[in-house]
């Protein structure tokens, strides 16, 4: 038995590879974090090495104090995670103030957590609160068709949500709150972390203009499924636009969206309906 035999680690590694197989992780693109349960932290503890030094962050989340996260490494390729987990991913422990971490397993040979750890961290904080503690996964991918859409549509939550809802019938059921859109910003820092986590107070997905997608979820299946659904819908949207040379003969109407919501028992974000 070793760290990577633990069930949550198997799920984590599988998700990194699934994203790679989808073509969302060119080079070191994209990153994944998972907030471990207390039981999982106990099961993992025997495999921890000597903890490394504390690293202070310029973001803080008191509700994440003492938590353990699995994270991908900065500059690491998600396609390599399955081959050598301890070099490409690691586990970090958050300090009591919720503004620092130390590596307790993995990230071997001087690796560091993803450069997007500030965004992951603040997203975990707001989604933990918004979900009553059930949210555990934050995932960033360079989803090709979502990125393409950010060159075509106005960068508003409403425009993106409506386009995605209307591009596949299951979409309003999968993300009834809609998606948030963050304008183009320099990645990897506190500012984009704050802007993204603000969107995550309302939505469980946020689009980064000309960059990619952030999604959240209670488990790997749900988070990956959300990214997959959004990405597929984005692909349908631009294919329809391109195929019809900008003309759409018919679409899912607002009344149709309301009918889906009624029959599937979900509450759609009314701000996005006419
Ligand atoms: P990292 O290699 O630091 O995770 O960065 C990849 C990325 O997608 C930045 O947005
Ligand atoms: Zn990125």
Question: What's the topology here?
Answer:
Layout: H1 7-22, E1 31-35, H2 38-44, E2 55-56, E3 68-72, H3 85-88, E4 89-94, E5 100-106, H4 117-130, E6 137-141, H5 144-149, H6 157-165, H7 171-174, E7 180-182, H8 190-200, E8 205-208, E9 212-217, H9 220-243, H10 254-264
Parallel strand pairs: 7-8
Antiparallel strand pairs: 1-3, 1-6, 2-5, 3-4, 4-5, 6-9, 8-9
Helix pairs in contact: 4-8
Bound molecules: 1,3-dihydroxyacetonephosphate and zinc ion.
List keywords for this structure.
274 residues; alpha+beta; L-fuculose-1-phosphate Aldolase; 2 domains; nine-stranded mixed β-sheet; 10 helices; binds 1,3-dihydroxyacetonephosphate
Please, could you describe this protein's structure?
With 274 residues, the protein is an alpha+beta fold. The chain has 2 domains: 1-115, L-fuculose-1-phosphate Aldolase (3-Layer(aba) Sandwich), CATH 3.40.225; 142-274, 3-Layer(aba) Sandwich (L-fuculose-1-phosphate Aldolase). The protein has 10 helices and 9 strands. A 9-stranded mixed sheet has the order 2-5-4-3-1-6-9-8-7, with helices on both faces. Helix 4 (117-130) runs parallel beside helix 8 (190-200). The relative contact order is 0.14. Bound molecules: 1,3-dihydroxyacetonephosphate and zinc ion (ZN). Zinc ion binds at residues 29-30, 140, 142, 187, 211-212.
Mean pLDDT: 98
- CATH architecture name of the largest domain: 3-Layer(aba) Sandwich
The first-level CATH class name of the largest domain: Alpha Beta
Instruction: Kindly state the number of beta strands.
Output: 9
CATH topology of the largest domain: L-fuculose-1-phosphate Aldolase
Helical content band: 25-40%
Gross morphology is: elongated
This entry's quaternary arrangement is single chain
> How far apart lie the N and C ends?
56 Å
One letter per element, helices H and strands E, the order comes to HEHEEHEEHEHHHEHEEHH
- What small molecules does the structure contain? 1,3-dihydroxyacetonephosphate, zinc ion
**SS content category:** alpha+beta
Give the count of structural domains: 2
Biggest sheet architecture: 9 strands, mixed
Name the strands of the widest sheet in spatial order.
Answer: 2-5-4-3-1-6-9-8-7
Q: Kindly report the name of the CATH homologous superfamily of the largest domain.
A: Class II aldolase/adducin N-terminal domain
Helical stretch tally: 10
What's the Cα radius of gyration?
A: 19 Å
The parts where pLDDT drops under 50 for at least 5 residues are: none
What percent strand? Answer: 15-25%
GO molecular function: metal ion binding; rhamnulose-1-phosphate aldolase activity
InterPro entries: Aldolase_class_II_sugar_metab (IPR050197), Aldolase_II/adducin_N (IPR001303), Aldolase_II/adducin_N_sf (IPR036409), Rhamnulose-1-P_Aldolase (IPR013447)
Subcellular location: Cytoplasm
Enzyme class: lyase
